[in-house]
Amino acid sequence: MSLSIGQLASKAHTTVETIRYYERCGVIPEPPRTSSGHRRYPANATQRLHFVKRAKTLGFTLDEIMTLLELNDGGGDRAQVKSTAQDKLAELDARIRHLRRMRSALAKLERQCSGTGPVAGCPIIEALSDDRSGFFNSAESPLDS
Q1: Is the separation of the CB atoms in 10 and 18 below 8 Å?
Q2: 66-99 pLDDT, tens per residue?
Q3: Top-level class of domain 5-60
Q4: Could you tell me which of 29, 123, 126, 129 has the fewest CB atoms within 10 Å of its CB?
Q5: In Å, what is the CA distance from 135 to each residue of 17, 20, 101, 108, 109?
Q6: Domain parsing of the chain, residue ranges
Q7: What is the pTM of this model?
């Protein structure tokens, strides 16, 4: 059984545009076409699109997803898959650390603001506007890695 692009989009809970984009990127192979030029996807294309969506949910980029798909399609070994997952975990851990620093910096600014009176003199606005505030330029800037 083959599917039209619209049928595939519906079954995979995505859009026709997304499927075309994934084809252009090489995430999904270009399907055969009918004599009238319409794409006809194999039934397993739905599973591949679900794989891509799940991997994106875990934070994998399309390039990383391509690597995982190539390993799966080409019979790669688990060590390569695990290494890819470990790299993603390290990246996510770094992003979480950075987000915590961002939150801490914003919380510090929020505590310094009284929340009353005119905007002029607001420590949040001053820190964002003034290069001389030192908040983002100092050696102890909360956003430095």
Answers
A1: no
A2: 999 999 998 889 999 999 999 999 999 999 999 9
A3: mainly alpha
A4: 129
A5: 44, 45, 13, 10, 9
A6: 5-60, 78-129
A7: 0.76
